[in-house]
Amino acid sequence: MEIANILEKNMEYLKAIEELHLAIRKGYESRDIYESLFRLNRRKYQTGRDTGYIDRTVAVLEETGYRNLPGFLYEYSKRHPEDPWAYREMGWIHNWHGRRRSALEHYIKLSELIPDDINTRLEISRLYRVLGEYHAARGEMEKVLSLDSENEDAHCEMGKVMAQETDFKGAFKEFSKALRVNKFNLKIQWEINQYIRSLHRPRGSLLKLVQDLPPDEFEPDLLSLFNDKREELAILLDNLPRHEFREWRYRSVSKEDGIILYLIVRLMRPSVIIETGTRSGTSTTYLAKGCRDNGKGRVITIDRTEDTGYLIPSELEPYITKYEGVDSMEILGKICLEEKNIDMFYHDSDHSCRHFCREISEVLPFMGRDGIIAAHDAVYDEKSPSPNVVDFFQRFSKKLRCRVFNTGSGLGVIRDNDGLKKILSRDILPGIRLY
Questions:
Q1: Which of these, 43, 47, 48, 40, lies nearest to 24 by C-alpha position?
Q2: How far apart are CA 184 and CA 366, in angstroms?
Q3: Structural domains in the chain, sorted by start
Q4: Is the pLDDT assigned to residue 118 strictly greater than 50?
Q5: β-pairing, 344-347 with 372-376?
Q6: What residues have CB less than 8 Å from 430, skipping those under 6 apart?
């Protein structure tokens, strides 16, 4: 267990999982071992979107007498009926598999054990809403608001429920309350914006609320960030082949984020771009398209998992070098030494603050003053535990020459390598150090 804890602190999640598997095979069973195992599996899945680690854990549990993860948790909850941990994990697993009704049942049991847990009641309301049980969802939000009348997430969720019930006047009031509670909460702004635009026929008051939100348009902030190249950027914007971007129906990165990345590549004309977190290859495609249209440059992309980049068009492959099945921290230093000069770095891997800062610490010594550092999920990230990239930009965006674009889950772009070096020379966030 101690070895696994050390490995987890060093972010060697897979090795920590294997260490716990070994302990279980040897017959050691405790709540701490299984809790650590589930936490690591969730973290590994969230950072790599690979279910193989969870499947391996299932196999180990089967060897030791448990048929599957829910089976273990069910047995555990029977032996320890007052322990909320098993119900929380059961709810998460069922929800992950799309079994909303089963997930709801376990979250309800959890709320009976911890009646004042706001996050649990928020999850119950979301599940009720997805299942179409709006009256029950509203009831859960009323309980949350009785516990915390200033909870912006609760007002936002209540607004969604009311909109589903076609109570647009009530939805308008709740969304407005959510925005008044914390007008700087970009996540709430993004959620409300996306939800209202997804409605089939929203009323005029709701559309006006969206219009009053900070615009998703990125051009003013981009021109401000690259003010020294304003004329060149304006020409690129005027000649942007928007029809080509509309044809790309990729899901992992929004069209707006992709266009920003493409424009930065066209404007700064980098020779070497490093990307961490390839996944489907959406952002890789935008970066490589910029290189192709410049007539120079290439993208080096790294991902922990195999079979990545399946959305990359074949005509862009000559501009891309892929490293698969390897952690970025194991290979970034080697790539930087080989390339010597890195012009742009794009982060979209493990979004923990520590990992993000360790990656840019590897790259910064090889970047000039004009080097660009960008990060995805800089506004909204419900999957990565705090402190994460969102927390980093919330804390340091005013201290750096950078912009955070409120497009989808957000894109942060930094043009201040000297400022970054000063930040990285001390504690990143309270209690978070790089090494």
A1: 40
A2: 35
A3: 2-212 (1.25.40.10), 219-424 (3.40.50.150)
A4: yes
A5: parallel
A6: none
Tokens of 139: 């009831």
Q: How far apart are CA 32 and CA 28, in angstroms?
A: 11
Q: For the purposes of burial, counting CB atoms within 10 Å of the CB of 240, is it exposed (0-12), middle (13-18) or buried (19 or more)?
A: middle
Query: Is the pTM higher than 0.90?
Result: no
257-284, pLDDT tens digit by residue? 888 999 999 999 999 999 999 888 889 9
Distance CA 197, CA 207 (A): 8
Distances (CA, A) of 246 to 84, 240, 315: 47, 12, 18
Nearest 5°: the CA angle 354, 352, 278 is 110
Range 15-18 contact pairs with CB under 8 angstroms and sequence separation of 24 or more: 16/40, 17/41, 17/44, 17/53, 17/56, 17/57
Copy the structure tokens of residue 361: 């610490």
Task: State both tokens at 433.
Answer: 């150090």
Structural contact between residues 109 and 87, judged by C-beta atoms closer than 8 angstroms: yes
pLDDT at 367 over 50: yes
Which residue is associated with the tokens 């709006």? 134
Edge-to-edge strand list for the sheet holding 402-405: 320-324, 298-303, 272-276, 344-347, 372-376, 411-414, 402-405
Rounded Cα distance, 202 and 166, in Å: 9
Torsion of CA 312, 313, 318, 322, to 10 degrees: 10
Give the pLDDT confidence of 316-366 residue by residue, as tens digits.
Answer: 999 999 999 898 999 999 999 999 999 999 999 988 888 898 899 999 999
Three-state DSSP at 433 gives: coil
Q: Which residues touch 353 (CB under 8 Å, ≥6 apart)?
A: 387, 388, 389, 391, 392, 428, 429, 432
Whole-angstrom distance, CA of residue 102 vs CA of residue 188 = 28
CB 201 within 8 A of CB 181: no
Q: Which residues contact 55 (CB under 8 A, 6 or more apart)?
A: none
Cβ atoms of 323 and 301 within 8 Å: the answer is yes
Count Cα atoms within 13 angstroms, Cβ side, for 260.
32
Pairing of strands 402-405, 411-414: antiparallel
For residues 298 and 319, is the Cβ–Cβ distance under 8 A? yes
Cis-peptide, bond into residue 430, ω within 30° of zero: no
